[in-house]
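Weekly sync, protein design subgroup
Attendees: M.S., D.O., the rotation student, P.L. (late)

Item 1: inverse folding check
M.S. brought a backbone from last month's batch and wanted to see whether the design step gives back something sensible before we order anything. D.O. pointed out we never logged the input encoding, so this time it goes straight into the notes. Structure tokens as presented (513 positions):
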């Protein structure tokens, strides 16, 4: 089973096995397996009648909700690809032309995520107007044709799914918080492996919570859940403080979140909420300190996983409870590369480095993108002879465990010549009893969105009456051999989080760099 974006045929086939079982739930509706199948084929017929054909790309201005999944399956059933628009961004700032250059063949807007007058609605309407392509909507929207109403008039009868191997099937948005918006493209001919696996043992069906936005993680988890006969619960606008209460109320078995979100949950009053239904929790998307992992394991037990991957490449490495059982030192790692993925660490010239040597992580495997949509210039920078340059710094140990230091652009050289990144700095500072949270950043953001200068700064959430910047500077140096003067250690009320859910190092650099 591959993920839901790449395997619409697989998903649509398995939906017929238990049509009465509930497949998706959100705050508005629940859809059974049979209803998802029927809705997908109704959507597909309506889209085909409105001009969508094999090889086309349909831009989706949708939140993550139950109805979004059958729409994705419908687009792929026609041999077309779906491109997720950044409807969660309140402003595109200087990136309007980047977003408009995607040149889709149709645009679908959900009024609940893109109400008239919003930045999201403006983007959808501009795309439609610029290229003269249909503007469709899931419900009434000014100037749009109601796709839901069109679909109700169509037959739900299944038809054979056909697609050309080289045509795009999924275009996942990446960047936009640390750099330019771009869309990682995956073709129909590439069968991407799943990012998740069913649970071991037979302790009831899967019931994961997928939240925040459409992307490869929700789509993969949805496909694995449906294959196992489970139910996917979606929430678009949930706050970290409401996550565990939702888990308890909805009997959720699995939830994944960025480290900053988990920290807010695990250090807040909601950490006391009883969640007996949970069978797997995951950290993903950013560096996680051993201190935070230990806190999560104490709270949830040995069901905590760390997943390292990228939208461009899928899941690359995973740290499981079996990996760290009796080996607390492995909490500093992201686990071992997953089956099917070739992963190496290389120097700036592209030469492979030995065990323990630090450099850039390069990967190769069926989960890697074919390139960035309509950006051959960016593709040429990161795709080399079938290998993908991740832009992350890391090292492999003698047992094959990968330590991810952070983005290569965020690393600096310590006094002993080692490369030090956010994972090292934040891991050390988070171990200090007076520090509640920390973040490393370097320099100020440039016009292109990158930081520059290579001078390390640190933001800490701590009471300056309990610990001084000089004491933290010494504490950091003892473990990392990184010199960070007291003047570059900044006491802050909180660590800012970008709309992606990751640490907003650009905001810290702009304020304190």
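Designed sequence read out in the meeting:
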């Amino acid at each position: 089973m591959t993920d839901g974006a790449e395997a619409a045929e697989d998903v649509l086939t398995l939906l017929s096995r238990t049509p009465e079982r509930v497949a998706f739930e959100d705050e508005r509706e629940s859809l059974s397996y049979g209803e998802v199948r029927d809705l997908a084929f109704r959507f597909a017929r309506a889209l085909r009648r409105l001009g969508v054909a094999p090889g086309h790309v349909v831009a989706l201005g949708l939140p993550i909700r139950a109805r979004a999944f059958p729409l994705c399956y419908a687009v792929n059933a026609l041999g077309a690809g779906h491109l997720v628009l950044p409807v969660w961004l309140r402003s595109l700032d200087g990136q309007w032309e980047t977003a408009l250059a995607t040149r889709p063949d149709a645009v679908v807007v959900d009024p609940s995520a893109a109400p008239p007058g919003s930045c999201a609605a403006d983007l959808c309407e501009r795309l439609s107007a610029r290229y003269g392509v249909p503007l469709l909507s899931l419900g009434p929207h000014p100037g749009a044709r109601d796709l839901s109403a069109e679909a109700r008039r169509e037959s739900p009868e299944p038809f054979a799914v056909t697609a050309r191997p080289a045509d795009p099937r999924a275009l996942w948005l990446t960047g936009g918080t640390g750099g330019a918006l771009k869309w990682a493209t995956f073709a129909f001919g590439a069968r991407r492996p799943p990012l998740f696996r069913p649970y071991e043992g037979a302790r009831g069906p899967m019931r994961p919570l997928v939240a925040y936005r459409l992307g490869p993680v929700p789509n993969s988890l949805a496909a694995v859940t449906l294959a196992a006969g489970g139910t996917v619960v979606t929430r678009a606008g949930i706050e970290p403080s409401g996550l565990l209460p939702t888990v308890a109320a909805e009997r959720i078995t699995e939830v994944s979140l960025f480290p900053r979100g988990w920290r807010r949950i695990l250090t807040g009053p909601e950490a006391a909420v009883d969640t007996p239904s949970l069978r797997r929790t995951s950290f993903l998307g950013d560096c996680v300190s051993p201190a935070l992992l230990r806190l999560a394991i104490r709270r949830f037990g040995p069901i905590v996983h760390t997943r390292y991957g990228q939208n461009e490449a899928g899941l690359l490495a995973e740290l499981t409870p079996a990996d760290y059982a009796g080996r607390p030192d492995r909490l500093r790692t992201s686990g071992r590369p997953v089956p099917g993925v070739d992963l190496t660490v290389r120097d700036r010239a592209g030469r492979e480095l030995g065990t323990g040597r630090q450099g850039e992580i390069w990967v190769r495997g069926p989960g890697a993108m074919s390139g960035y949509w309509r950006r051959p210039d960016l593709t040429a920078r990161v795709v080399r002879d079938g290998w993908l340059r991740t832009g992350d710094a890391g090292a492999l140990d003698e047992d094959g465990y990968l330590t991810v230091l952070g983005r290569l652009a965020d690393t600096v050289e310590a006094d002993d010549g080692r490369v030090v990144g956010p994972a090292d700095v934040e891991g050390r500072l988070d171990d200090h009893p007076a520090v509640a949270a920390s973040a490393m950043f370097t320099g100020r953001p440039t016009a292109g969105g990158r930081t520059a200068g290579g001078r390390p700064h640190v933001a800490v959430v701590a009471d300056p009456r309990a610990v001084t910047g000089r004491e933290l500077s010494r504490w950091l140096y003892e473990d990392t051999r990184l010199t960070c003067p007291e003047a570059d250690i900044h006491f802050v009320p909180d660590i800012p989080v970008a709309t992606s859910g990751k640490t907003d190092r650009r905001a810290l650099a702009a304020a304190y760099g």
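Discussion: The longest strand covers residues 387-396. The CA atoms of residues 102 and 274 lie 45 Å apart.
Action: P.L. to compare against the previous round before Friday.
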